[in-house]
Design goal:
MetI-like fold; flat; 412 residues; 2 domains; 17 helices
């Protein structure tokens, strides 16, 4: 007996044309770039053009792959011919989406994620909710993405030049990355005159070193303390677990300004202000709550019968911890350590109050650069930090999945 497969009903052509016209109107409105006199014309033109292209794709082409290529080529060449290469590439992407959208709507496949009995308002809300989530995601991620191409700007501007928009090779350069990594004495002839001065490069190099020294030291300290605290708090016989947990994670709740001010006055009394030791301890305090929460979540699925079995076989507490418990919770420990490192690497409020010029970190140097001397070098540093954050978060996700497999939460 063959398995029943739901085949959604095909909507009328007017339904597909309506939504494609709305898509074209939105693209036309965004193309107006704030010019309200031109906006109305582009909205109407976009709606008409997109609806005609969608109708042709549905009635004549009918294949989704050919529809993508057709719409991509039509809109891409039109954008390139009337405005330029950059707009042509953008319209090619819009055309690809239009080709996908037109066939997807006309075939009725938009109903497949929902049950067959779903009403039209339920279908509309299903995709409206996901559209709102997508817009929020774009609102959060677009400012970060824009930093990347701007960091390759040949000119010392914080905006896209006409050459960049036209994708001219001469408009892009690595000069701001050379400003970070190479001082004027060591720069090759291709970048001579592009570096700011030896002092500024020395400041950036020192800031990079300080960030890694303080970050690694704080991570090791926070991971050790947080792991031991999480193991203790995970025991059912531990008294006052909730108050102790609230106290240990309080640095996540208390505003950083208050924490930094309190640490400054305390360190001034014991001689740790303006020192590497003071900064490492301060960043360890801020990173410890992340380790505690991550390791505690990992220990929630830990089978305590394993430690009891190890004790029955003669293993002491320390041997049991390193041979039985630690290998199983190691992904959670590493994830907590990575979060602690990110916290230290990105922190600037505490550094502003506790560090002098010798302990400047990358965020502190960027803050000074924004206030004292505007330079696209900041964009290059920001791009490097974004790439580093993506790599660390990817590692955290891989470790989380590995931890779930070890604990039997998800299949291998």
């Amino acid at each position: 007996m063959s398995e029943y497969k739901y085949i959604p009903p095909k909507p009328p052509l007017s339904f597909t044309v309506l939504w494609c016209a709305l898509y074209g109107a939105i693209v036309g409105f965004l193309s107006a770039r704030g010019n309200m006199q031109l906006a109305l014309l582009l909205i109407v033109s976009g709606a008409l053009i997109f609806s005609m292209i969608a109708s042709f794709a549905v009635l004549v082409i009918k294949d989704i792959n050919l529809s993508r290529i057709f719409c991509l080529a039509i809109l891409g060449f039109a954008g390139f011919f009337y405005i330029g290469l950059s707009y042509g590439l953008l319209m090619a992407i819009m055309g690809f989406i239009l080709g996908q959208l037109s066939i997807w709507l006309s075939s009725g496949n938009y109903r497949l994620p929902l049950p067959p009995y779903a009403t039209s308002p339920e279908v509309l809300w299903f995709y409206t909710f996901r559209g709102i989530c997508s817009l929020i995601f774009l609102f959060l991620i677009v400012p970060i993405i824009i930093l990347v191409p701007l960091s390759f700007n040949q000119e010392p501007y914080f905006s896209f030049t006409p050459g960049m928009l036209a994708f001219e090779r001469e408009a892009f350069s690595l000069r701001w990355y050379w400003d970070i990594l190479i001082n004027g004495m060591a720069a090759p002839e291709a970048v001579q005159g592009w570096w700011t001065d030896v002092w500024q490069n020395a400041q950036w190099i020192r800031s990079i070193k300080n960030s890694f020294i303080i970050g690694i030291g704080a991570t090791l300290l926070a991971t050790s303390i947080g792991t031991l605290a999480a193991i203790g708090l995970s025991r059912s016989e531990m008294p006052y677990r909730r108050p102790i947990m609230a106290l240990l994670i309080s640095p996540m709740i208390v505003p950083l300004v208050i924490t930094a001010s309190g640490l400054f006055y305390f360190y001034s009394q014991i001689g740790l202000a303006k020192s590497y030791t003071g900064l490492i301890l301060a960043h360890a305090i801020l990173g410890t709550p992340f380790v505690i929460i991550t390791v505690t979540a990992t220990l929630s699925g830990f089978d305590n019968n394993l430690t009891r079995a190890a004790a029955n076989l003669g293993a002491g507490p320390i041997r049991t911890f390193f041979k039985v418990q630690m290998p199983l919770i190691l992904p959670g420990v590493i994830s907590g350590g990575l979060f602690a490192f990110i916290t230290s690497f990105d922190e600037v409020v505490v550094v502003l109050q506790l560090a002098d010029v010798r302990q400047r970190t990358i965020p502190r140097q960027m803050f000074s650069g924004i206030r004292e001397q505007i330079s696209p070098t900041i964009l290059a540093v920001a791009t490097i930090l974004v790439i580093l954050s993506i790599a660390i978060l990817t590692a955290v996700e891989l470790l989380r999945r590995r931890s779930e497999r070890l604990r039997g939460v998800s299949p291998g």
